[in-house]
Structures are given as structure tokens and as C-alpha cells.
Design goal:
The chain is mostly helical. The chain contains seven helices and no strands.
Length: about 120
């Protein structure tokens, strides 16, 4: 998993959702030009804006600043679940998705579990 700088993450999250800089600037009470400086790493995002954006994107402030979430204190999340990803990295990837995207991942997991359960039951 590639670790991104907070400014790169802000830009990626906004662009992934097809949101204009002006929309985010209005949300946090600044100008589009100033918000552009946050995304380009020319200025640091104020704490007040960080909190607003964490709520807006429905992620933790730790996630927005590139820190690992509290779930990293859970034993076992450093173990590989796929060839190149740990459980914690998978959780980071899921957390970076929109609310709808996260719901879709949960739905896919439930469907896969159901399919595998049915397959196991049919073999008996």
C-alpha cells in the first residue's frame, strides 16, 4: 500500500467523488485559491477544517492526516490477508471509500460468505 501525504489524500478524496475545489472551500469557509494551497501542500489545513472534512467524508481525522486508525491497536491486523496487503491496509482502503462504497464492500463480503456457505452445505 502506498502511503500518501495528507494533501494528496485530500485531493484524491475530492476528485474520487467528482467534487470541485470551490465546493470544499465553501464547506470549510475559505476561498478556492486557499483550498488549492492545502491540496498542493503549500499551506497546512487548519484543525477546524480538518474536523469538517473528516465529518464530510465520513472518515477519521487520523485517516485524513495519513495516520493509522485506532483499529491498528487490535492484534493481528499486521498479518497479511492477501499477498501484498495486511488486514490494516485493507481497512485503510475501505475507510477511504465513500459511505456508499463502504456499504458496497460490506454487501460483497456478505454475498461471498453466503455463496461459500451454500457451496459447503451442498457438498455434504
Amino acid at each position: 500500500m502506498i502511503v500518501k501525504l495528507p494533501n494528496e489524500l485530500l485531493k484524491d478524496m475530492r476528485e474520487d467523488r467528482d467534487i470541485k475545489q470551490q465546493t470544499i472551500a465553501d464547506l470549510i469557509g475559505t476561498t478556492q485559491q486557499q483550498y488549492s494551497k492545502y491540496e498542493n501542500g503549500e499551506s497546512e489545513l487548519p484543525l477546524r477544517a480538518l474536523i469538517i472534512l473528516a465529518d464530510y467524508y465520513d472518515v477519521s481525522a487520523d485517516f485524513l492526516i495519513g495516520r493509522k486508525g485506532d483499529y491498528y491497536n487490535v492484534p493481528g491486523l499486521e498479518k497479511k490477508v492477501l499477498k501484498d496487503l495486511t488486514a490494516g491496509e485493507v481497512l485503510d482502503d475501505i475507510q477511504s471509500l465513500s459511505k456508499e462504497g463502504r456499504a458496497f464492500v460490506v454487501e460483497c463480503i456478505a454475498l461471498r460468505k453466503l455463496k461459500e456457505t451454500c457451496r459447503c452445505t451442498n457438498k455434504e
